[in-house]
Structures are given as structure tokens and as C-alpha cells.
Amino acid sequence: MAKKTPGLNTGSMADISFLLLTFFLLTSSINTDQGIQRRLPPPLQENQEVPKMNQRNVLRILVNMHDQLLVNGEVLSDVRQLKNITKDFIANPTEDPHRSEKQSKYIDDLGENAMVSKGVVSLQNDRSTSYAMYMAVQNQLTLAFSELRQEYSQQRFGKSYDKLTETQKKGIQKIYPISISEAEPSNYGGKK
């Protein structure tokens, strides 16, 4: 007669595996990409016209299919120059008539009047622009607005923007809102 081999009861192993899987799913965090934070303008109503902008208040940035950067028609050799050009355009510290206008506006979160720029950065890319160049431009633009906020925070409150209260941060964001208008990509140079 054949010898009988003892069997293991594996029914409880499935239960334990399920409990371990559930535990790890509930306790682990899944990293998600945040993306580029931009607030889109509200959609136009049926009979509403597109508001006219003074051309002096628009900084035109174009990235072509060869990843060349043009700012107001002039070629930039280094994308890192874009940050300072954007800061100078938005802040316009010398009241240059070719840069953005500023208007006095009451900022309720700060309880005071402040000079707010009317400037808008208009960005347009070619469909063949590389992703690396697109992100480099976006990073420089975001860095320009971040530095403007940081400088205002240091000047007004004597501390870093990160150390301000939420109300103070909202006030500075109203003085330096991220005003970037991104046009739909087009084919400037044909196919790459």
C-alpha cells in the first residue's frame, strides 16, 4: 500500500496574502505628478468680445521647431536669460515705456495700495518643440514670478515668502499673479 503524504492546509494562506496586500495598499502612498499649475481664464460668453490689450503689456515668447527662443522678435541664445527678461518686464522698475504698465490697486489681503503690473506673458510653441525646451521655458517663467514674490516679501515683511501667513501670500499673489497666456502650438517651420 502507498504511503500517504500529509497535505498542508493552504486555505488560510490566501486569507493572509489578501490581508497583507490590503495592508500595503492602504498604508503606502502613490506619487502622482502635479503638472504645471496654471489658472485658465474664464470662457467668453456668447456676445462677449475679446478684451483689447495694449501691446506694451504683452511679452511675446516664441519657441520654434529648432528649440530657438524668440522674445519680442529677438533671438535669445540661452533660455536662462528668460527669467531676468520676464522679471524686468513685469516689475518695470525704471518705468520704461516699452515694458508693462502698472496701476495702483488696493490689495485687501495686505490692507494697502500696491503697484500691480498689467503685463502678460504670451507663450507660443511650435508643434515640433522638444519637451525639454518646453519645460525649460516654463521653469524660467515660473522662477521669474517666484523671485518677484520673494523679493517683495523680503522688502515688505523682511522675511522669506515661505514664512508668510496665508493671507500675506495671497496678497503678494495678487500683486504678482502668474499671468501667462499660452497659445495653441502651430507649425511654424513645417516638419522637423
What's the number of helices? Answer: 4
Helix and strand composition category = alpha/beta
**Gap from first CA to last CA:** 79 Å
Radius of gyration: 27 Å
- Spatial arrangement of strands, main beta sheet: 3-2-1-6-7
Beta-strand percentage range: 15-25%
Uncertain runs with pLDDT below 50, 5 residues or more?
Answer: none
Query: Secondary-structure element sequence?
Result: HEEEHEEEHHE
What is the general shape?
A: elongated
Query: Biggest β-sheet: count, sense, barrel?
Result: 5 strands, mixed
Range of helix content: 25-40%
> How many strand units?
7
Whole-number average pLDDT?
Answer: 85
Walk me through what this model shows.
This protein has 192 residues and is of the alpha/beta class. The chain has a domain at 55-182. 34% of the residues lie in helices and 17% in strands. The protein contains four helices and seven strands, in the order H-E-E-E-H-E-E-E-H-H-E. The strands form two sheets. Strands 3-2-1-6-7 form a five-stranded mixed β-sheet, covered by helices on one side. The chain has a two-stranded antiparallel ribbon with strand order 4-5. Strand 2 (69-71) and strand 3 (74-76) form a beta hairpin. Helix 2 (81-91) packs across helix 3. It starts with 10 loop residues before the first helix and ends in a 10-residue tail after the last strand.
